[in-house]
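#data-curation
PF: Archiving a pair of folding outputs for the training set. Convention for this channel: one message per protein, sequence first, structure tokens after, nothing in between. First:
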Amino acid sequence: MISRVADHCFWFGRYVERAEATARMLSATGSLALDAELPPAQVWRPVIVVSGEEDEFRARVAEGSDDHPAWGDGEIVQRFMVWDETNGVSLARSIMGARSNARSIREVLSLEAWEAINELHLWSSPEVERAGFTPARGSDEAQTQWAQHREGFYQQVRRSTQLALGLLRSTMLHDEPLDFIWLGVLLERVSQTARMLDVHHHAFTNLTPNQEIIETALWLSLLRALSGSEAYMKRSAGRISSDAVARFLISESAFPRSIAYCVHSAYERLCDIRPPEKHDLPGGISLERLRVLDSWVAARSKEPLVGRSVHELLTHVVDEVHAICGTLGTELLGAG
């Protein structure tokens, strides 16, 4: 398999997962804004922080200020995270990125998977308008849903991306192209889970005392943003605490969005692509780093989680995943 095709497969997986994660996060945050008695900035600013676009938002939208009302304006934050084409992780950019990479590997994708992602792209059909922070404008149907039924808009994105991911698994040969796609999905998912848990765990554990109801609503919102509320309830018998939620999202080996599950699954995928015993093949550095990270995360499941250690653990995971993606690009994907 040539490196150009592998690179498009990898990034196709990352962009599809990123679009799905962004839609889920915005949907859960919109519900939280209605249910929790919190200052608007405390609800909406974490969305920008998790996306990694805090500096960009501050410079272009919040006029260089940390006290600008835009940080707590749900409409501004959502437009920035959905339509802003200069925001590299907006929904519009992620959907365009997924479709562009899919078109480049049309010969290895199944017809059904291609149709699913192409239909999502046509539905969101970005037509750029040069105004303010460069929003894109979707199709009339998408714009109507965005204006009148925001939750329905996010649900449409989630269903379309989930359909594409499901079709990949059920209609493609389980060989190298799918391995590279799913490796991209899993590494993007690790990063999303770690970033969201890090930002929210820090904010939630610094609430003032006697705010148990608000804290419970916040943790439930985080679980919903990671599609984990039902799975968590089954594991915890309905008891919610910061340590239990953090432990679940970090170490639960049976939950497909936990850090432990995704890192281990990514390692197994890379082993399928580049078997450990074949020392003459490229990809050895990436494989070893992923093996070490997998062992390190597994070892942390036996240790207590307390305040600062959660942040350090999640920061290490995000940094390592970023580094592994970099070495993958150099060794296997023809980047650099």
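PF: Second:
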Amino acid sequence: MLRTFASDNNAPIAEEILQAIISANVGDAVSYGDDPLTERALAQLRAVFGEDSDAYFVFNGTGANVVALSCLVKPFEAVLCPATAHLQTDECGAFERFAGCKVLPVPSPDSKLHVDDLRPYTLGGHDEHHVQPRVISISQSTEFGTLYTPAELRDLCSFAHEHGWLVHLDGARIANAAAALGLGLRESTRNLGVDVLSFGGTKNGLLLGEAIVFFDRTLHQNIAPFARKQGMQLASKMRYIAVQFSALLEHDRWRKYAAHANAMARRLANQVSDIPGVRITRPVECNAVFATLDRQAIPRITERYFFYVFEESLPEVRWMTHHATTEADVDAFAAAIRQAVAVPAG
């Protein structure tokens, strides 16, 4: 079967993760996380992020973001995020509906928040007529496949904390980011000032599953267990999510999967960079390649490969790789692009 280049959500389950699920499928286990396998996985997360951290397994990324953020805000408070953030563009207003709080999208041509972008939100508007900023939510890697440098993230977190705000990191692809930066999971999040992490697993080899990690358990004031249940994110057969995270953390498999996906994106970028009419539009820093090409070539390529047109007006496409993408997959895809672009306009 040919690989798609649309999303890392399309990837198969990593073999070690699948084996972990099979191994857990023996006998009975107490439901809702009161089982030894779940406790083991939570202990592993504490070992990575700190013994005072507090983690909760959920089903998907939207659930992780919504539950995490809902624990941090009051009804009159708001979340600041890039206008391009998944929270703002691709979660169907789930946070607003669930929490009853406002998202304030900040214009961000590079899909990143910068300190200067946030300064206007510290000025005025502090009375009862206005929602009050409380949390900034950023994605690492970003929706454009790019990275906050450690210095950028540290400065952003410091600025937020100076103004009494918290920092939530949508880490659907935090493994890709950490691998690209040459950092560990804690070193790329908590140690830089992040308060709460949505730790993605689905895009990095898991069947399904994300973990919300509060780096200070007092942040959610014991709200998280109830928010997870009300948010319909409490798995009755929790062990099957938990063992996936155990396997992902063991032997730093998260890094192996993510580094491979990143390497395949760089290979793809190198393969297509000399194709006439193909222009790579954004830095290739993780596992995404953005490019423009002749509009007529797109349907020729999609006859064989599935991917998304990211910005129709250009058109700009997004090609994504994952843990199971092979060099042969990349080479064949690049050849198909080259062939499609070479067809004379009719």
